[in-house]
Amino acid sequence: MLRDVSFSLSPGEALGVVGESGAGKTTLLLLVLGLLEPAEGAVRLDGLPWSGVPERDRRPRRARMQAVFQDPHASLPPHRTGWEILAEPLEIQGRGTPASRREAAAQMAARVKFPEATLSQLPAAWSGGLAQRLCLARALMLEPALLVLDEPFSALDPTLASHLRALLLDLKAEGLTLLMASHDRRSVAGLCDCTLALHRDAGSGQDGARRGVPA
User: Fold this and answer.
1) Which end of the chain is more exposed for a tag (fewer CB within 10 A), N or C?
2) Is the pLDDT of residue 206 over 80?
């Protein structure tokens, strides 16, 4: 349960949500994504109501908000190749032709340093790091306004984590808004403009209020 949490983000800003395991970081991200509904309060996207809105009304706006979850393999369809996974968001939105979608997939794979030859494989053949990079590539295919990340560096070695951090900084400079949850404050340093610290209420076992501070 989250209490007394309030924040806003403008285009090109990055907020890091930090706290120990069980503090409510993932719950907060799910509320923002509209995968959970708040019992009180509200979430707004582009100044318009997002929480409490029927999914049929949210669906046309979902391309504006994309996510990369903590467990990359659980987030990927196991029986689809990398090519198919990257093309799917464009297919759903009715964008482009099969040829243009394949080219867009190749370009995005290169941007996140996912080997193009590996796109013909199924997710079970990929390491956690490869799977996480493919998840990021899929999230970026629709050029979202907000990218929500849950422990994005957890499956990456230091070299790939550094590349991902540099890529996110470039995207942020281009106007992409970032909301990133991590148990490690150091992982958000240099990337996020400020942090939102979640603390467990020792007396009630509930997730309590936080403070916004520079990252």
Assistant:
1) N
2) no
